[in-house]
Design brief:
Shape: globular
Largest sheet: 4 strands, antiparallel
Strand content: over 45%
Number of strands: 10
Strand order of the largest sheet: 4-5-6-7
Amino acid sequence: MAKSIVCVGDTLSYGLNGNVFIASISDEGTVNYQFDYGGDIGRDSGIKVLKIDDESYAVAGNLFINKRLTDVFVTKYLNDGTRIWTKNFGGNDSEITVDIKKILKTRDLWYLGQQGLLEQVVLMSMH
């Protein structure tokens, strides 16, 4: 696939209350693919996209698990839009995605977010 831009956000065009929206756009402005992810409980949103290597990228965001609480998710995709894996994280309170980073020496993905009303910082490693 030629060079492209991957963007994430949320859309009200799909799902009852909005879903994560992911799109890949070529350098010429052509849409390579677009799709949504999420459920119908609340307004799910994509927060950050991260290039992992020349073949893949990760998306991090928030998914509503009930009308008040959100969990975070991280999904790995191939550049052609094929989903490799998705991991959801959450507890008894709301978790909110802040960022996702790649640690170059270990090739691990690190999720950075906040958890609960006290806004504790959460740092997790994913392989």
